[in-house]
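User: Can you help me understand a structure? I only have the sequence.
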Amino acid sequence: MGRVMRDDYKILKLVDANDAVSQKINIIGVIVEYGTPSRSRGTDWFLSLRIVDETYHDSGLVVNIFAENQEKLPQINSSGDIIQVSHVTMKSHNAETYCLFNKRFSSFALYEGKYGESCRPYQVSYMFRQRGLDTTLVVGLRKWAAGVQLNTVSKDSVLLQQLQEGLCCDLVCKILHVSGVSEDEWMLFIWDGSDAPPLHIQSKLDDEIENPLLLQVEPQSLPRDTLCKLPSVGTTLRVSVQRRNVNFDISSLITGRWVKFVNMKFKVWQGLWCGDLTRETKVRFVPNDDIYILDRQREFEERLSSKLNRMPFACFPWPSRVTEIDPKVVHLPLATLMDILTHSQVTAKFKCIARVVASVPNKVEDFRSPTGVYRVRVTLEDPTARIHAYLYAEDAERFFDGYPPTNVMARKWKVLMGIAHIDGEAAPRNPPWLECCIKSYSLDESNAWESRRFRIFDTKLTT
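Assistant: Let's start by predicting it. Here is the structure, written out as tokens:
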């Protein structure tokens, strides 16, 4: 019995635990990442988490915990809390070591993280016994965690600006909004502060009337109060979640929380990036004060505070010269399309950098009404949103430089729309980035926001 007691008091540093494969050990560490409780392949419940200490904090150690029911799993308050596990077994798989918690003889205790004051655990498993040494270890870990900036969540993850169609990879992002699409489907709105890359447009311009490019992935536009809470810089990616593809509680994905999606699939729909949570996708909760996340937030704040940083990443150092704006409106601040959509006033004027991805009508000979008035609706796109804007009357005259010959206008419009041919066949379109001025207005003052529209003005097509 005495030998067992001495083993209980021997708590290994994580760097030593990593070399103790096939041994039963006791360890303690700071939780830097944890998943959502899920069903195992058998009848048990399962939770995976990753811990670090001062000896092993670059990649951390994975701890896999099994229990008879969800209530017996660790109920972690937040990343950064401390967990102590006893009588766990070190395992190795594919050259990586991990720690296995056995529901029959292993035990755990959870403590508040670096800002905690009490050394009493806020949750313990049935067989856990607290000892005097535990307090010293908890205090030591809190002191260490308070003095370091952890960088543990970025390994093997990508930014939204690195997306590729069909790619399955890890993404660290912030949950901005969760909405229900149907009883068995949800849509997540996620963001990491970067711009998803522009896509070639596969749809045919002739199809725009019958099958127009959609402005957003979600079936219904978000309410204005929700839309205004989304960041105005950086891509907000829509992610589809089907009940049959997930084995965790969707309510655990709380707005404002940073998470790591492991093995998320990215795809293109209607020329828009979107994501899918598949059966292979895992969710990990990560600390908001991780250095990777702090860097994302800092870069976002820098983009917000700089006029030029609202420019899409893809068009640096400057957009194409297919358009020019009137010198008298050069002073207008550069805005993203999301800035325009969420502006506090119905009527306003903006300067933006965007692409024209569709138009109605699509043939230049149809741009004018029978009375000779220009009336064209274009779909503008930047990394933050899509909107419909109009080229109308005198503003369109300015844009087209009057009434040029049809062949001249067609040539310029072809460049603007990114139309190209390869071996005589129409290729996917890659519209250039252009600078333009947009004004917003309402058609009905009694219903100003619902009737709000956008028009291009003081801009000239030069190509």
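Now, to help you interpret it: The chain is about 15% helix and 35% strand. Residues 1-7 have pLDDT under 50 and may be disordered. Let me know which part you'd like to focus on.
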